[in-house]
Design a protein that fits this description.
This protein has about 1250 residues and is α/β, with parallel strands linked by helices. About 70% of the residues lie in helices and about 5% in strands.
Length: about 1250
């Protein structure tokens, strides 16, 4: 299966990672020393090697056979990391596993030792995507990690990593890889993969990759699929580029579009918290930029324009020194070449002189021989003279004759030899002349070619200098381009940082405004509390005298006040009388009695009764009535216990005493014992005669006893109570105690509204009383709180101004940062064009250098050839001259021999002709021999002189050769000195350039810091704008929610109207002709409160639209809106209460025929009913129910309802109660086929019934059924 290039060529060792040497060197050293960190943070743009280095770290720390700090790649751990099978190395993608549960699982696993490897390594990619909870969970284990665990976090957005995480990691910043590094890597891979990739195409891919090696390899893969031979055109087509000229511009534009698209996506997905973080980051970036600016200013103190100009002049001077040193070096090289040429010429001259010396020696030797021969001939001539003088005779004549013949023959031979020698000499002289001409021509050619070589070498030096300068310019241009790109990236990052800082500043401003609004609202509230405390202080005495009325009003229990003030027997209540049941002391006195009732119910397994203010009010009214009238008031539809005593707990009367009667009766009647609670009630309901038995067999103060109070207290069906004490003692000085209760699950007339526990009721009452008594201290506390709130509000206002200034500064930073991006982009474009121009200059200079080198090589080859030719010609000339010399010597010898032979002939002839003149001739011969001898000696001396001259010339050439050698050595020494001076000058130039770079760098950093500081301020403003936009979106969403809530409220209001009959129309009009004045007043109040809702909601919408500036107004309006809703609900509840009250009146009228036993004057209980006491039994316990029926007494009829309710499943279908409805097994059936069944378990009296179709529950008297649509 084919493997993508970026996977196939993923580095296997640290050495293979390119462009990040500052990181890989550190990591290798850590691995070599065995000191890996427990946590690494790798940050940088995509494709720069973060994941690769993370895996290399995981392999290196666990490798069995590491090689110089790098993993071997062969052991089981290395292979396991590569193929993902090593369970001890875990890679986590934080983008999809960013929850706190994922990190918790990691923490639970991390404590276990590795299975195979030495370390358990967790590689968390995209670490900035971890949630806040996940980061907090990770922070703990990173603070105290196990020794066998290493964390490696990789991210492209390090600013999103909390500082607490960063501070616990060893951080490595991966830079964008240089284009030339990517290009070289691509060319290497192309060579290994047997693909054809031009250098220009590789450079284009590297530029498109924008510093990412993975992107470059992916694009190379795409181009390879497009064509095997990859050129610039191939890359353009595969990458979808429109042309190389516009490649980089379009790439940059696409990058901007991508950034804008990403920014748009981020804006669409980001919420207010992200904008808050961005705003905070922008503020920090602005501060960091300011700090960096201050540091850059401090660092750049020495980088003044004068210092930079001086440094530039120093660079120019150093460059001039380098140029002079290069010229001196060139001159020294030329001198060396000339000295070497002279050395060759001196060597040739010496060789020639040595040849001449050899020939001269040969001539000298020949002259010596000739002189010796002449001397011998001279001696012989003298001997002949002596012999001639001795006289010659006949035999001597013959001898002389023969001597003439021999001499003539010898002369002929000598003449022939002389002619041959003359011919040989002529030929040798001709050859020597030709050799001399050829030598002269070769030497002239050598000189010309040496000059050409010198000129070519000068051209090479000039071309090399031009190339070096072009390369330096190109490197400077590339560095400028890299710096410009880095500044562009930094400027872009500065924009992001500044925008984040701006967003953070806006959040802080919004928070400050919210805090100020809160503080202002707190001041308003505190002022209101002061006013209220003052009012409370003013009215505390009046409220104390109002007793229960004031308490109920403070609790918002208006219905309870209505009961006391408007009940049937309201005249028996004396508000302000300290002995009245409305007094606060008597209300406190009733609380222990209620607790006693609950303690007993709890002891027998029953639920404790809760308190409602309406039942408390009913008990107060009943206690005041019964203090005067010996009996029940019968003014409420509640169940009531009464007791008269001397201020003691009535529980012993109602429970202890009557329980004893009950237990004895049950035991005597049925032999049953131990009944308590619900069991006692259930037994009583199923066994008749118990109450009659008690009436007949037990007496209390002389009156028949009862168990009704006891059964009432332990009834499981009651859930709510109210109790009151009246201590006026109108009847015999007794205290009157009244306990009123209501059944569970029955709304009735609202007796069960807002129930609370006895303890909560006691706390509310006590707090109310203490509040009235402590009104002065409450006022002082409220004033102190007001002063504190005012001071806090002033501080909040100052904070708002500070945050506003910070936000404005951040906005300026954002604007400056964006301007910096534009300037940096223009700088990148300019440096990019400059790089292209400098690259062309390098190409041209390289071509010129190559041509100059080619010319120099050719010239040097020609010089070498010419030198060889000169040497050959010189050797030939020397040889020819030697041949000429030899031939001349041979000719001279031959001439001398001829002359000698001629003389011999002459002598012989003379001897023969003048035999007798032998003596004279001998003398003449002696003279001739002497002359020859003298001539030979002279010639010998001449040849000795020639030999001495040759020796002197040979010695001179040797001296010249030595001088030439010394000149060459001196020239070489001069060349070394010139080279050393050039090196020193170049070092001075580099030092000067370095100093200039430092100064210009400091100046550039200062300018960059200034720009970044402006960019950061602008970023703050931009992030503030982004935060405002998010808030606007939130406001819009809240408006939609508010609109939906309003629509729902309108729908609820409409549904409420549908659930009523005449009430809906009356609420709409504020009046109903069929209602009395009280009901119409409630209708009008409902209309008024409803009218408040719409303005309150309108104000809410208006305030919500300006929530940042009008938060206090918004809160107040919202409170008004909620209060309006509460008022509406309360008004509707009052309406419901009034309807229930009128219904109760109708019930009372319908049940008027019933008369309680004690009022009828009979002591006999009715069969089938619960026990009831006679009217002179002290009413020590009577169970009383509206209409006279008990909770378990079946009803023979029901009553009509004037107001109908709606069926929930079919709102158009209503029901009403009709009379004379008989009970049957499955309940009555309505027109929509829904049956009512009893849901309370006791289908008697006042019970809960539920429709089996719509599940609606109703509290009914007797039974009811649907009777039509109303």
């Amino acid at each position: 299966m084919y493997q993508a290039l970026y996977r196939k060529w993923r580095p296997r060792t640290f050495e293979e990672v390119v462009g990040q040497e500052h990181i890989t060197t550190t990591l290798k050293n850590e691995m070599i020393q065995g000191k890996p960190a427990h946590a690494y943070l790798l940050m940088g743009s995509r494709g720069t090697g973060k994941t690769t280095c993370a895996k290399l770290i995981a392999k290196a720390v666990n490798c069995r056979n590491p090689v110089d700090g790098s993993p071997c790649g062969q052991c089981d751990c290395c292979r396991g990391v590569d193929n993902g099978s090593l369970v001890d190395v875990v890679e986590i993608d934080a983008a999809s596993n960013n929850g706190v549960d994922n990190i918790r699982d990691l923490r639970e696993e991390a404590v276990f030792l590795p299975n195979i490897a030495k370390y358990r390594v967790y590689i968390i990619d995209e670490a900035h995507m971890l949630s806040v909870g996940a980061v907090n969970a990770l922070l703990k284990i990173m603070e105290e990690p196990p020794e066998h665990v290493i964390f490696i976090l990789a991210t492209t957005e390090v600013h999103k990593i909390p500082a607490t995480i960063q501070s616990r990691c060893q951080r490595f910043d991966f830079k964008r890889i240089a284009p030339e590094v990517i290009r070289d890597r691509l060319l290497f891979i192309a060579g290994q993969e047997d693909m054809t990739l031009t250098e220009e195409a590789a450079a284009l891919i590297a530029r498109i990759a924008d510093g990412g090696m993975r992107d470059a390899l992916s694009l190379l893969d795409l181009c390879w699929a497009h064509a095997h031979d990859i050129t610039v055109e191939t890359v353009s087509e595969a990458a979808g580029l429109v042309g190389q000229d516009y490649l980089f511009e379009i790439a940059d534009a696409a990058g901007k579009d991508l950034e804008q698209a990403k920014a748009g996506l981020a804006d669409a997905k980001a919420d207010a918290s992200e904008k808050d973080e961005a705003y905070q980051s922008a503020l920090k970036a602005a501060q960091d930029a300011k700090d960096a600016l201050d540091k850059a200013k401090a660092d750049a103190v020495s980088a003044t324009p004068e210092a930079i100009s001086a440094a530039e002049q120093a660079v120019r001077d150093a460059q001039a020194a380098v140029d002079r040193a290069q010229t001196n070096l060139a001159n020294a090289n030329a001198t060396l070449v000339d000295a070497q040429s002279k050395l060759v010429a001196a060597q040739s001259a010496k060789d020639s002189a040595d040849s001449v010396l050899t020939a001269a020696q040969q001539n000298k030797d020949a002259a010596d021989a000739k002189a010796a021969a002449a001397s011998a001939a001279y001696e012989k001539a003298k001997a002949d003279l002596a012999a001639a003088e001795a006289g010659a005779s006949g035999p001597e004549y013959d001898t002389a004759k023969q001597k003439v013949a021999d001499a003539e023959a010898a002369l002929a031979a000598a003449q022939a030899t002389q002619s041959q020698c003359e011919s040989e000499l002529e030929q040798a002289q001709s050859a020597a002349a030709t050799a001399q001409t050829e030598l002269n021509d070769a030497q002239a050619s050598l000189s010309a070619k040496q000059q050409a070589a010198t000129d070519a070498e000068s051209g090479v030096n000039a071309a090399q200098s031009a190339l070096d300068a072009a390369n330096a310019d190109l490197d400077a241009a590339k560095q400028a381009n890299v710096d410009a790109i880095a500044k562009l990236d930094a400027a872009k990052q500065a924009v992001k940082d500044a925008e984040s800082a701006k967003a953070a500043a806006d959040v802080e401003l919004a928070n400050a405004k919210a805090a100020k609004d809160t503080a202002d609202a707190a001041v308003t509230a505190a002022q209101q509390k002061v006013d209220e405390a003052q009012a409370k202080l003013d009215s505390a005495d009046a409220q104390l005298k109002q007793g229960a009325i004031g308490f109920f009003r403070a609790m918002g229990a208006d219905s309870a006040i209505e009961i006391i003030q408007n009940c049937t027997h309201k005249d028996y209540t004396e508000v302000g009388n300290s002995l009245d049941a409305t007094s606060l002391d008597n209300m406190l006195a009733a609380i222990p009695y209620m607790k006693s009732i609950n303690e007993y119910r709890k002891s027998v397994g029953l639920s404790e009764l809760q308190v409602t203010y309406k039942l408390i009010a009913a008990a107060i009214a009943n206690a005041n009535y019964s203090d005067v009238k010996f009996g029940h008031s019968m003014q409420f539809d509640t169940t009531e216990n009464l007791a008269w005593n001397y201020g003691t707990d009535p529980k012993p009367q109602w429970v202890d005493q009557e329980k004893a009667f009950f237990d004895q009766a049950v035991q005597e009647l049925y032999g049953v014992t131990g009944l308590t609670g619900k069991d006692a009630v259930d037994f009583y309901k199923t066994h008749s005669g118990i109450e009659s038995y008690v009436n007949q067999h037990f007496k209390v103060a002389g009156y028949p006893a009862t168990v009704g109070h006891y059964l009432h207290v332990i009834s499981p069906e009651i859930g709510y109570m109210g109790m009151a004490v009246c201590s006026k003692g109108t009847l015999n000085g007794w205290q009157t105690d009244s306990l009123d209760t209501a059944n569970l699950g029955w709304a009735g007339s609202g007796w069960n509204m807002n129930p609370i526990s006895v303890d909560e009721y006691e706390q509310n009452l006590t707090s109310y009383i203490n509040g009235l008594k402590n009104a002065k201290s409450a006022l002082d506390a409220a004033k102190a709180d007001l002063a504190s709130k005012q001071q806090a509000a002033a501080g909040a206002a100052a904070t708002v101004q500070q945050k506003q200034d910070a936000a404005d500064s951040a906005q300026a930073g954002v604007d400056a940062a964006k301007q910096g991006v534009a300037d940096a982009q223009r700088a990148v474009d300019a440096t990019k064009a400059d790089v292209a121009a400098k690259q062309q200059g390098v190409t041209d200079a390289q071509a010129e250098l190559d041509a100059a080198k080619s010319d120099l090589n050719a010239a040097n080859a020609a010089v070498d050839t010419a030198k060889s030719t000169v040497q050959q010609k010189q050797v030939a000339l020397d040889a020819a001259n030697a041949i000429v010399t030899g031939a001349q010597i041979k000719l001279d010898s031959a001439k001398a021999d001829t002359e000698a032979k001629q003389q011999d002939v002459m002598d012989a002839n003379a001897d023969l002709a003048k035999f007798f003149q032998d003596v004279a001739d001998a003398k003449k011969a002696v003279d001739t021999a002497k002359s020859v001898h003298d001539s030979a000696v002279a010639d010998q001396a001449e040849k000795a002189t020639v030999l001495a001259d040759a020796k002197q010339k040979a010695d001179g050439t040797a001296s010249a050769l030595a001088d030439a050698q010394r000149a060459v050595d001196a020239a070489k020494a001069d060349t070394g000195v010139a080279a050393d001076k050039l090196t020193g000058s170049q070092t001075d130039l580099e030092d000067a350039q370095s100093n200039l770079d430092i100064l210009t760098g400091l100046a550039a950093k200062l300018a960059e810091a200034q720009q970044r500081e402006q960019d950061a301020v602008k970023a703050v403003n931009d992030t503030k704008a982004a935060l405002d936009a998010v808030k606007a979106d939130a406001i819009a969403a809240e408006s939609l929610v508010s609109a939906a809530e309003q629509a729902k409220a309108q729908a609820d209001a409409k549904l409420s109207k549908l659930n009523s009959i005449d009430a809906g129309a009356a609420i709409a009009s504020g009046h109903d002709v069929n209602a009395d004045d009280a009901l119409n007043a409630l209708f009008a109040a409902a209309v008024e409160t409803r009218a408040k809702v719409a303005p309150a909601k309108a104000i809410l919408d208006e305030k919500q639209a300006a929530v940042d500036e009008l938060q206090p107004g918004y809160n107040a309006t919202l409170a008004a809106y909620e209060q309006a809703k509460s008022d509406r609900i309360a008004a509707e509840q009052k309406l419901s209460d009034e309807i229930a009250r009128q219904e109760a009146e109708e019930v009372a009228k319908q049940q008027a025929a019933y008369t309680p036993k004690h009022l009828a004057g009979t002591d006999t209980a009715q069969p089938g009913s619960l026990a009831q006491t006679g009217d002179r039994a002290g009413l020590i316990g009577e169970t009383f129910v509206i209409g006279g029926t008990s909770s378990w007494q079946p009803a023979s009829s029901s009553i009509k309802r004037s107001a109908a309710s709606r069926c929930k499943s079919e709102p158009g279908v209503g029901y009403r109660l009709v009379s004379n409805a008989r009970f049957h097994g499955q309940g009555d059936r309505c027109e929509n086929k829904g049956y009512y069944r009893c849901a309370s378990g006791v289908p008697f009296g006042t019970s809960t019934w539920m429709c089996q179709r719509c599940k609606a529950r109703k509290r009914l008297y007797g039974k009811g059924r649907h009777s039509g649509k109303e």
